[in-house]
């Protein structure tokens, strides 16, 4: 990311009025678009399924779930929390506050927010506290000393610090709330120590699924989804026997442009790109980080979730569908072999999937607002427009290709997403074009077998650089209508 950031600073120089102007429109000729459009309903062939990383869809998973359920709610989990000062981390700590008998915090890892980390250390008394830089770690030590901390943790920093937090001996569950490829190494090392993973880092499976899934099976750990859609699927699958799952149905809010037709969106991109830029980074339902909000506007977030669902639950890409559900109350569904559909509903509260990921399969009593269907009145659903949202097709194509292609998709999207938000002269519709270009270029070096962590990290870096370089030609290119 240092390379991308330095290039961004150069691109900002000499910025012209072309900023945020779309440089292309998608057409039905795109192979990626055709691939996505053909994905409607379960193919029912049974082809393309894999062993899941989440504890579902097998006799062993059923036995494990039953065994843990019978333990009752007097359990205690010891947590290592990666990303403790972000939204995932702070909400996880709210759960710890609500259930102090069930959770102990043994390690905290975060970015550079030394002040908040100091407050967390004073409250939860972890054994390890890690920050991103040596300067932040030094500031943390100063703040703790000033606060009279009598139980000083091991204060570490950088990549080694994250690894130390993830592998602290006493923790049995690692909550991966950090963003990006930085979550891969600590997750892998935690798995090797047979720690369960509460998965809030999408890149772990989107980029690294080919590496992670075999490790999950080898070390016998539980991979427990902590985001709302995959938690919903996971909850719906509790008790579904081996071979009982027919189809996964991911729900999507539709993002910032859900109420516009394809033609209306493309016209707005052409005539008022600045309005598009502002709208694309504002979610209609809730406040999220800028990157995720833009991913929601392009619906790449849902495409990435398709890949994650494939690795978590084993379903083939032909058996994973997306449906737009603006109310965001049905968080996702599964269809069983007898065509029954099972859905998980709830208010849009990130704490709900988080608490299930760290307490599974138990159900803890929490003081949250109950769902009131009468208050809602109605729930609506519609199919996504694949021409309007070409990123969906790109994700399906990357997933079906497999190997290192999903790492390229993810990294290219992150780079294009960042540049769009940094106002370097890209249009909203340039985002999928840049991603598609990186995927096409990667076909020459695609690796499908024996993929290793180094392969993923190298492809991640290459894709980011490719997008930055390719973006130069889009900034002043003529608009194609």
Automatic annotation (TrEMBL):
* Reaction catalysed by this enzyme: 2-C-methyl-D-erythritol 4-phosphate + NADP(+) = 1-deoxy-D-xylulose 5-phosphate + NADPH + H(+)
What are the entry keywords? Answer: Apicoplast, Isoprene biosynthesis, Manganese, Metal-binding, NADP, Oxidoreductase, Plastid, Signal
What EC identifiers does the entry list? 1.1.1.267
Q: Per its UniProt entry, what is the enzyme's top EC class, as one word?
A: oxidoreductase
| Cofactors (names) | Mg(2+); Mn(2+)
User: Which GO molecular function entries does the Swiss-Prot or TrEMBL record give?
Assistant: 1-deoxy-D-xylulose-5-phosphate reductoisomerase activity; manganese ion binding; NADPH binding
**Cell compartments where the protein resides:** Plastid, Apicoplast
Pfam families under this entry? DXP_redisom_C (PF08436), DXP_reductoisom (PF02670), DXPR_C (PF13288)
Which family is annotated?
A: Belongs to the DXR family.
What is the protein name stated in its UniProt record?
1-deoxy-D-xylulose 5-phosphate reductoisomerase, apicoplastic
| Species annotation | Haslea ostrearia
| Lineage of the species this protein comes from | Eukaryota, Sar, Stramenopiles, Ochrophyta, Bacillariophyta
């Amino acid at each position: 990311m240092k390379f991308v950031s330095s290039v961004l600073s150069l691109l900002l120089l000499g910025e012209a009025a072309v900023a945020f102007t779309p440089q292309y429109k998608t057409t039905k000729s795109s192979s990626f678009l055709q691939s996505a459009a053909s994905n409607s309903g379960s193919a029912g062939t049974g082809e393309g399924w894999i062993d899941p990383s989440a504890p579902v869809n097998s006799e062993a998973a059923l036995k494990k779930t039953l065994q843990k359920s019978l333990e009752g709610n007097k359990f205690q989990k010891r947590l290592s929390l990666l990303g403790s000062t972000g939204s995932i981390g702070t909400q996880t700590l709210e759960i710890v506050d609500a259930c102090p008998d069930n959770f102990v915090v043994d390690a905290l890892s975060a970015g550079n927010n030394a002040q908040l980390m100091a407050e967390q250390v004073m409250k939860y008394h972890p054994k390890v506290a890690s920050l991103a830089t040596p300067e932040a770690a030094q500031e943390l030590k100063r703040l703790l000393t000033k606060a009279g901390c009598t139980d000083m943790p091991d204060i570490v920093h950088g990549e080694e610090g994250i690894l130390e937090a993830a592998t602290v001996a006493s923790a049995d569950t690692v909550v991966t709330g950090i963003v990006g490829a930085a979550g891969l190494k600590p997750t892998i090392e935690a798995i090797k120590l047979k720690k369960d993973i509460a998965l809030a880092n999408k890149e772990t499976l989107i980029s690294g699924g080919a590496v992670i899934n075999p490790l999950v099976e080898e070390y016998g750990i539980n991979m427990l989804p902590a985001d709302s859609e995959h938690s919903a699927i996971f909850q719906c699958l509790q008790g579904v026997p081996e071979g009982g799952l027919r189809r996964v149905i991911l729900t999507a809010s539709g993002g910032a442009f859900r109420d516009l037709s394809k033609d209306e969106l493309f016209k707005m991109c052409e005539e008022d790109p600045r309005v598009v830029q502002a709208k694309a980074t504002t979610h209609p339902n809730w406040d999220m980080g800028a990157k995720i909000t833009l991913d929601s506007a392009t619906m790449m977030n849902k495409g990435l979730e398709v890949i994650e669902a494939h690795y978590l639950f084993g379903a083939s890409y032909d058996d994973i569908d997306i449906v737009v559900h603006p109310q965001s109350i049905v968080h996702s569904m599964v269809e069983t072999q007898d065509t029954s559909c099972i859905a998980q509903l709830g208010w849009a509260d990130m704490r709900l999937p988080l608490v299930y990921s760290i307490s599974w399969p138990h159900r803890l009593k929490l003081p949250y607002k109950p769902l009131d269907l009468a208050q809602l009145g109605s729930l609506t659903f519609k199919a996504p427009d694949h021409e309007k949202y070409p990123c969906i097709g790109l994700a399906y194509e990357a997933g079906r290709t497999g190997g290192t292609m999903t790492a390229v998709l993810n990294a290219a999207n992150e780079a294009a997403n960042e540049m769009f938000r940094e106002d370097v002269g890209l249009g909203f519709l340039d985002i999928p074009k840049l991603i598609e270009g990186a995927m096409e270029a990667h076909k020459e070096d695609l690796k499908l077998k024996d993929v290793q962590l180094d392969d993923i990290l190298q492809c991640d870096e290459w894709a980011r650089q490719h997008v930055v370089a390719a973006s130069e030609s889009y900034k002043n290119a003529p608009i194609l209508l």
